[in-house]
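Hello,

Our lab assistant flagged a job as stuck in the queue for most of the afternoon. It eventually completed. Since we weren't sure the result was trustworthy after the delay, we are filing this so someone can double-check. Below is the sequence as submitted and the structure that was eventually returned. Let us know if re-running is recommended.
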Amino acid sequence: MTTVARLILGGVLIAAGALKIGNPSDSVVAVKAYQLLPESIAEMVGYILPILEIVVGVLLVVGLLTRVAAVIAALLMFAFVFGIAWAWAHGLRIDCGCFGGGGQLETGQEPAYLLDILRDFGLVLLGAWTARFPPGRFALDGALGLAGAEDTGEEEEFEDEQSAAHQV
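-- returned structure --
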């Protein structure tokens, strides 16, 4: 289950970052549209965010520093949930900019705040799950010895083999 959770979360982050990294000025516009941060900080966040999303996403997909990456991803997703809820509560009519674009919506376009919040909160839960449970057999953490036997599932597999041997 953790492998699936980290692959979904990592894949979403990679896709989101990849769609923004080619046009960082759009990412800056999206961050500024939330009106949450001072102008200079919003600009810096807009430029850094796509890189952070890609790096954390790749770490999750390959299972390297999995728990740290999962905590960062969960906090990032929670920040997105907060930002979208903030925009909604303050009557802003913006595109979340989650997958590129962002900024003020055109006349006639309606924000999809509830769907964005539900999606991102689901991703918060995947991040929490991944941080809480072992990274799984297909994680580099286990292959590189960065996770103990209890974190790779090897200890449980060994106990199962021992139990089966005693029954024979």
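-- support follow-up --
The delay was a queue issue, not a problem with the job. The result is valid. Residues 152-158 have pLDDT under 50 and may be disordered. The two ends are 31 Å apart (CA to CA).
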